Amino acid sequence: MARRLKHWGWGYEDEQPPYAELQAAAAVLSGRLGFGDSDPEQPAPLSRVTLSPPRLRPPATLASICFADNYERALHAHGRSYSDIVQGFRGRFENPPDVVAHPRTEDEVRAVLDWALSAGAAVIPFGGGTSVVGGVELPRAERYAGVVTVDMKALDRVLDVDRTSLAARIQAGATGPRLERQLAEHGLTLRHFPQSFQFSTLGGWIATRASGHFATLYTHIDDLVESVRALTPIGRWESRRLPGSGAGVSPDRVLIGSEGTLGLITEAWVRVRRTPLHRASVGVRFPDFAAGTRSVRALSQSGLYPSACRLIDAEEARLTGAGDGRHALLVLGFESADHDVEHSLAVALECCSDHGGTRDRGGVGSAGPGSAGPGSVGPGSVGRGGAGAGTEGAGRRGVESSVGSWREAFLRAPYLRDTFVAMGVLSETFETAITWERFDGFHASVTRATSAAARAVCGGGFVTCRFTHVYPDGPAPYYTVLAPARRGSELEQWTEIKRAASDAVIAGGGTITHHHAVGREHRPWYDVQRPEPFAAALRAAKAAVDPLGLLNPGVLIDA
């Protein structure tokens, strides 16, 4: 029997720990945080959840791939943000889809789309369901005849491999582990490892402009796409496969980041690479985050292009067990399929030393073939409440404990958030990007505004920061908020904190999102960020390909 995903939280149902384990984890976590209930709540079982009756019935020709049972509708009713998990944990599914379709072929996707549009139903494309910005739920569903969610995960095959050009044609529903296993048969890898890698899909990465493994150079899925194929209400949208083109506005780039508003992505040609054989990683400690920032800026402008270059502030290092709270930590790594990387690492360490960095003397990690490599989220399984041997922990022979601790905490984070919800801890993140010359003031103002909001609505908490990606012209800071929550008021508390943080991000000149996408939750700030002529052009494009405004309505633009 196939494993079932949790209908309310992260991971599979069989990964939910027994209550005794939850209590033990809560005792440790509350001691480390200084808040949180050591007597965690239990999630509302699906058997006690009552959903509104479905308003649609699929035609007989689609009945074998369409479902309207409580599990399917609840599973597809939310993404996996903190707010989503709180609602699912409490059994609140106020606007579930009426029908969930699982097409197995592109022709079936077309048939589902045609039926839903003819019925006047909103159509929500669904990959891994890992959206943290309200990208897969429709809060105002009453405006439509119904909601049809199209789960794409059955379209999960690598269809073609071009070893000469190092490219592969892959169906959009392939999850990270699924596509990596198939590429590995050819000695190849996409090496796009977002934190949601285990469950998210290629189509979802493209639709949301996801970021992945590489901290420099090839940071977004944009950098790995050759061409995209999608189905729209007025026909198929498929770009020509090319290494590059100057022929006007790119049809690929219009679809990348479109978040399901212009069409349902069914497959793509993507650039792949030979599996890295040479890897080296190290942890570097800095006296403070500012010194680490100066070093990372120098590294980003050096032309070395490390694959991992994640700077973690002292508080996050402490909370994740990677440090004592007195030093910032840089996770630094290089990898290559055809040449040794030790020289690059040595040069990078000299750069770090110039800015007060001290190498963690636990040793340099050299990962063997097939492992995830430095700072990445590699193919493998994540176990109950922790990281399995097949993920970032893979091949970490000799890697220093501080880096290993942080990597494992990085992978545990989505699972750990379920535990935080149970023990009354508000746990959520937001991310952005800003140019280097503005970063210091920006970081101070965003941290100050978010911390003040957490104190005002929660009475305290932590706001930590790390760099997930860095560019020659600026970093992508990623903030984590941990605070005591009032049970029953979590959504209102987070809404106030999120508003304060987002206002500060936009006021400081940053982007409302670097890689989490816009969805519905970021819309108010996205509307401020984008130029109005561009918004008008986007509305016109939406009207052209989706004249009824039924594809993922409310995301990016109003139909």
Q: Fill in the CATH topology of the largest domain.
A: Alpha-Beta Plaits
Gyration radius (Cα, Å) is 23 Å
* CATH top level class name of the largest domain: Alpha Beta
Question: Which residues form runs of ≥5 with pLDDT under 50?
Answer: 366-400
Strand order of the largest sheet: 5-6-10-8-9
Write the CATH architecture name of the largest domain: 2-Layer Sandwich
Mean of residue pLDDT values:
91
Backbone shape: globular
Instruction: Report how far apart the termini are.
Output: 42 Å
Q: Report strand %.
A: 15-25%
Backbone structural class = alpha+beta
Task: Summarize, please.
This protein has 15 helices and 18 strands.
Q: Which SSEs are present, and which pair or pack?
A:
Elements: H1 19-33, E1 66-67, H2 70-75, H3 82-89, E2 99-101, H4 106-118, E3 122-126, E4 147-151, E5 158-162, E6 167-171, H5 176-184, E7 188-189, H6 202-208, E8 225-232, E9 235-238, H7 251-255, E10 264-271, E11 273-274, E12 278-286, H8 289-300, E13 308-312, H9 314-319, E14 328-336, H10 342-354, E15 358-359, H11 401-422, E16 425-431, H12 436-458, E17 462-471, E18 474-484, H13 490-507, H14 523-529, H15 532-545
Parallel strand pairs: 2-4, 3-4
Antiparallel strand pairs: 1-2, 5-6, 6-10, 7-11, 8-9, 8-10, 12-14, 12-15, 13-14, 16-18, 17-18
